[in-house]
Amino acid sequence: MRILTLCLTFTGLVLTGLAAPVSAQNLFSPAVKVNEQVVTQYEVQQRARFMTLLRAPGNAQEQALKGLIDERLQTAAAAAAGINPTEEEVQGGMEEFAARANLTAEQFVKALASGGVAAETFRDFVKSGLAWRSLMRAKFGPRVQVTEDEIDRAIAQTSSKGGLRVLLSEIILPANTPQATAASQKRAEKIAQTTSLSVFSANARRYSASPSARQGGRLQWMPLSNLPAAIRGQILALSPGQVTAPISITNGIVLFQLRAIEETDAGAPKDLSLEYAQYFIAGGQSDAALKEAARIKAKVDTCDDLYGINKGKPEELLQIDTQPVSQVPQDIALELAKLDPGEVSTRLTRNNGQTLVFLMMCGRTPELGEDVSRQTIRAQLVNQRLQSYADGYLSELKADATIVYP
């Protein structure tokens, strides 16, 4: 069962709005029978007062009766499985619950007593919850499996608040020789002055060394957080149509033109960790090397598939790294920004253009803050799934139960 959120102030408890008292002669009359187990009017009254003091939402009387019916079914199921919390476990559960109000169990019980709630009511509430949770772990725990991908997705959903995505065009000018660098730098400075989408697109078709040149340099929407931090800053300073200052990368000079920017509902984490693979192919941008890259691309879906491609070959041909985006070489980071997991780029070279880089995006993971751990996220996901199983099992118990109201 879910433990109620504790929001109780234990100074000057006011008992207004509590359930109407039950007359003494009716205190122990049945409020309901659950599989021949009686829930008394006194128990309902006590639970209603307890829930009111805890500021629990909803009608206290109705919620008290519902909760006690559920607990009768839960404790019976736990007992049938041989689960009965020890006195030490119950006392520990009471201490843990009371600690949420920065009190000891003894102090908590005294505060409840001042509000007309017996210690036994609190104790039964805790014991029932312990028994049910123990049963759920025993019955469904082995079924609950949480993968690393599921943890990554959970972190991505919870570690950020709102985000931006950008629509860019790019031009990548060659800078693999001193002469090419000088010519490209001069051209880049001129292109950087344009604010025309059509002029930038024409320059991309004419001069860009990127595969996007065929589309006039136009890229798809991408999260701003995919880009290196320094480039994010430049992009955010632009208005649509404006172009970044020339950005130097290995063997090239890059310019980005902002076409559009918009907010997204999905969060964008401050920092990303990128996992990516580089498979090195001799021949640079030669037809033979590009043909080999196409052959490999047709055979792989994930980075792990590259281990099979490299089997029997020198280990140094394949390099798989996981790094914060701030530590990824800028030319690689810019290519990865355009890729989804499993996608490939063959634009980059190494060794003065003699080696083609088969670059594959493996995945992106938000960097965890100091107060977040993967173990914590895993535990949360496990508990969520156990709760789902518990809800389903309780519904089955209710469907099979005989519940009689006087």
How would you describe this structure to a colleague?
The structure is a single chain. This protein is α+β, with helices and mostly antiparallel strands and 406 residues long. The chain has 3 domains: 24-144, Porin chaperone SurA, peptide-binding domain (Triger factor/SurA peptide-binding fold), CATH 1.10.4030; 160-270, Chitinase A, domain 3, CATH 3.10.50; 271-367, Roll (Chitinase A, domain 3), CATH 3.10.50. It contains 13 helices and 12 strands. The strands form 3 sheets. Strands 7, 8, 9, 10 and 11 form a 5-stranded antiparallel β-sheet that branches. The protein has a 4-stranded antiparallel β-sheet with strand order 4-3-6-5. Helix 1 crosses helix 2 (60-80). It is elongated and about 100 Å long. The protein starts with 29 loop residues before the first strand and ends with a strand. This is Parvulin-like PPIase.
Report the structural category: alpha+beta
Gyration radius (Cα, Å) is 32 Å
In N-to-C order, the SSE pattern is EEHHHHHHEHHEHEEEHHEHEEEHE
The number of distinct helices, counting runs of at least 4 residues, comes to 13
The CATH topology of the largest domain: Triger factor/SurA peptide-binding fold
What's the CATH superfamily of the largest domain, by name? Porin chaperone SurA, peptide-binding domain
- Describe the sheet with the most strands: 5 strands, antiparallel
First CA to last CA: what distance? 26 Å
What is the number of independent domains?
Answer: 3
Low-confidence stretches: 1-20
Beta-strand content:
15-25%
Mean pLDDT: 86
CATH architecture of the largest domain: Orthogonal Bundle
Q: What is the molecular shape?
A: elongated
Find the count of extended strands (DSSP E, 2+ residues).
12
